[in-house]
Amino acid sequence: MGEITLVTCFFNIGRGEDKNTELRKTPQKYIEAFSRWARIQNKLIVYTDDAGAKDVMEVRSAFGLADKTEVIQIDNLFELEPELYARMQKAAANPHFIDFRYIPEAFSNNPKYDYLWMMKYYFMTDAYNKGLLSENVVWFDFGFDHGGKLYYDEEDFNFKWEYDFGNKIHIFCLHDPSKVLGIESLQYLDDCVTGCMYALSRELVPTFWQLVRNAMEALLMLDCVDDDQQLVLMAYKARPDLFEVHVTGWQMGIKECGGSHMKLREIKPPKGENKIKKMIRLTVRKFIPNKKDPKRLYAAKCYEKAKRIYGK
Q: Is the pTM of this model over 0.70?
């Protein structure tokens, strides 16, 4: 079995103020989620700023893992790729881009968010250049599993994770990415690639970063931006020979690649809507349409664009 080095990052980019209260994640929530999986016994490299460095080391030290933890402090995050970030800001501020996207208020329309998630691959490459990586590398989001959404027993993370990923980049997808039309994914914000975990051989780390960066460059040529779920989908489309695809559920990568002991929370399927209630709802919607319905608003936008381009 191959030794694994884990890489992650922790930066506050304002997710605690998200307009959608369900998506709000304060720095404290991230620390709480990290505290669950931080007991993992592998070497861990954390990219963070001055505010996060102390918290990270406190958590790992509490598990006796300070000697297996490397904190790399970055206090100039947005100066690492300044030209690219400036172009991302410009694209995200374009109202035509926002109109193009199915969900105008999506967090992946935020250039800070997209930039940070793109930099995951930059950080792994920086660790590669510093000679800090073992033969197998895993990116783990700092807030992995959102505080126990899937893995209910935090003690299950208390093990040394070993796995041989071979000479491939392993991505974990909700459905087959080869059957996804990339432009539709960009427009409708379809979830295909799950961004919480990526696994690969050390020697492919710089290539992965270059593919992801190239994908962002390509999006900017279209006056668009997006997060790394879209970027990795595009990277896969560019070089499918480098990837091994796992079609699975959110957060399942660790269980399917060496963590078979991890216990899963039982997820009950949503109850089907009562047929009579559904009939009433559809009837009401037909005669009294909800003017704020996202599908209706998006259809109206598309109709207005069609009129502008093809004439009334």
A: yes
Find the DSSP H helices in the chain: 27-37, 50-62, 82-92, 95-100, 111-129, 182-188, 205-221, 228-238, 253-256, 275-287, 294-310
Q: Which residue is it, tokens 């374009």?
A: 94
CA 40 from centre of chain: 21
Enclosing domain of residue 302: 275-310
Domain count, the chain: 2
Q: How confident is the model at residue 16 (pLDDT cuts 50, 70, 90)?
A: very low
CB atoms under 10 Å from CB of 68, counted, come to 17
Residue 178 pLDDT exceeds 80: yes
For residues 264-269, give the mean pLDDT. Answer: 80
Q: What is the pLDDT confidence band of residue 312, given thresholds at 50, 70 and 90?
A: low
Report whether 10 contacts 52 (CB < 8 A).
yes
Nearest one of 84, 117, 123, 143 to 5, comparing CA atoms: 123
Q: Is residue 137 part of a domain?
A: yes
Do 85 and 11 lie in one domain? The reply is: yes
285 shares a domain with 155: no
Q: How many angstroms separate the CA atoms of 265 and 54, rounded?
A: 32
192 is a domain residue:
yes
The CATH number that applies at residue 34 is 3.90.550
Q: Do the domain assignments include residue 269? A: no
pLDDT in tens, 212-264: 999 999 999 999 999 999 999 999 999 999 999 999 999 999 999 999 999 99
| Residue given tokens 């700023």 in the structure block | 49
Counting other chains too, the contacts that 26-34 makes at CB distance below 8 Å and 24 or more residues apart are 27/51, 27/52, 29/143, 29/147, 30/142, 30/143, 31/55, 31/59, 32/147, 33/142, 33/143, 33/144, 33/145, 33/146, 33/147, 34/8, 34/10, 34/59, 34/142, 34/143, 34/144
- What is the C-alpha separation between 192 and 183, in angstroms, rounded? 13
pLDDT at 284: 67
